[in-house]
TrEMBL record:
PROSITE patterns: N6_MTASE. Gene3D superfamilies: Vaccinia Virus protein VP39 (3.40.50.150). GO terms for molecular function: methyltransferase activity; nucleic acid binding. InterPro entries: DNA_methylase_N6_adenine_CS, RNA_MeTrfase_RsmD, SAM-dependent_MTases_sf. It comes from Thermoanaerobacterium thermosaccharolyticum (Clostridium thermosaccharolyticum). Pfam families: Cons_hypoth95 (PF03602). One of its GO terms (biological process) is rRNA methylation. This is RNA methyltransferase, RsmD family. The lineage of its organism: Bacteria, Bacillati, Bacillota, Clostridia, Thermoanaerobacterales.
């Protein structure tokens, strides 16, 4: 694994041996950030089910203002912290060692909202359902914010979760990226349509 672009471009990321973690492929990661484009600059980014932090670190490398990494598995926290050190500055990286639902509640209570939320749970377990419902309930997206769920092609996501509406789907082999926005903002005038 490596950082694809930005200030940490080319730097290799640490990852635990074996199959305990399923890292996002470089192809999917590059396609993801091509879609996000200029939205990444100065954004507040949330990397849920962070694993080794690959997606959040890519976001920071490309100009995100701040990224919160949320990971429950203690062993993975070490890899996230080690990988964050590849960046020139670690001040805008916040690592939370906690369950995803607890973290979403924490953001709600502290009025922390996000421009982009990335959800990449283990495949085949429907672990994206409750986070999507809670993000909607807690209103954790900024006005024009959106969510990206990485999932297996056999995991079928609903068109709506609470007030979140599916707005885009991109397939890359067996991996799918599904995008959601608040339904009220789905057709809002924005600088770049998802």
């Amino acid at each position: 694994m490596r950082v694809i672009s930005g200030k940490a471009k080319g730097r290799k990321l640490k990852c635990p041996p074996g199959k305990a973690i399923r890292p996002t492929s470089d192809m999917v990661k590059e396609s993801l950030f091509n879609i996000i484009g200029a939205d990444i600059y100065n954004s507040r980014f949330l990397d849920l089910f962070s694993g080794t932090g690959s997606i959040g670190i890519e976001a920071l490398s490309r100009g995100a203002n701040i990224c919160y990494f949320v990971e429950k598995v203690f062993n993975n926290i070490k890899y996230i912290n080690d990988n964050i050190k590849l960046l020139d500055s670690t001040d805008n990286a916040k690592v939370l060692h906690m369950d995803v639902l607890d973290a979403l509640y924490y953001f709600s209570k502290n009025d922390i909202k996000f421009d982009i939320i990335y959800i990449d749970p283990p495949y085949y377990k429907n672990l994206y359902v409750e986070p999507l419902n809670k993000i909607s309930e807690y209103k954790l997206l900024d006005s024009y914010g959106y969510i990206i769920v990485e999932h297996h092609k056999n995991d079928i996501l609903n068109d709506k979760y609470g007030n979140l509406q599916k707005v885009r789907v991109r397939k890359y082999g067996e991996t799918v990226l599904t995008f959601y926005k608040e339904a009220a903002n789905e057709y809002s005038s924005v600088s770049r349509e998802l």
